[in-house]
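Pasting two entries for a bug report.
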Amino acid sequence: TVAFLPHQSTHRLIVLFIVFINNKLKMAKPGNEKKGAKVFKTKCSQCHTVEEGGAHKQGPNLYGFFGRQSGQADGFSYSSANKKSGIMWGEDTLFEYLENPKKYIKGTKMVFAGIKKPQERKDLIAYLKSTCSA
């Protein structure tokens, strides 16, 4: 017989946990571009544009921001907190940021309260990724 060692139990639990989380992520509903367009129109378009060469409003034009460091859109006056944050915009960083911008970048000028519903954030990100990618 093989003796059961405590560390084997811990290892098995970790493996099971990883498999569980992986399955949850796979089951998570992906973002819907069409719904994201509606979210953008109602919650973002007052301050942002998305088209290439679009004007800055109260917030910067968002075209080309995926994969770019925060605070880098030419011609927009960012807060020093935003410029110094070092954030590279991608799906993960944007997902967290959109929940509560002021908490994610302390000192940001962005006055938006955030989007609490995870699916709305996923939908918006799907839209932004399709329309803002350079």
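Entry 2 (this is the one that rendered wrong in the viewer):
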Amino acid sequence: AIANIRGGGEFGPAWHQAALQKHRNRAFEDFEAVARDLVAQGITSPRHLACIGGSNGGLLVGNMLTREGAKLFGAAVCQVPLLDMQRYHKLLAGASWMAEYGDPDVPEDWAYLRSFSPYHRVYDECLRPGSDW
């Protein structure tokens, strides 16, 4: 299945812009919704469902591993991912993606970037007391 989640360019600029910066979580929510629907329709089961992504798609997979998606996928392939959203802009072409994600050096941007930074989600969400991760 191809999810065509918000943030991609498949359906034009408005579709792409719907998941920029502080709205990036919409892309992850869309992906989880597709996975849940595939399971609900009996097409597959979490044990038999996998996700794969590289670069921006690697950020998606990293979020699946640290969100509800961890229960929705039996396998995940995370290729050349963006996992540390606090430092992504200092690596290779990362600075060119700041319009897409935001600037982690700006406190208002970092506040939402941290919410979908897989590296930080492991500490903030997955390892917190009471987590079922």
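Dev reply: Rendering is fixed now. As a check, the viewer should reflect this: The chain has a mean pLDDT of 94.
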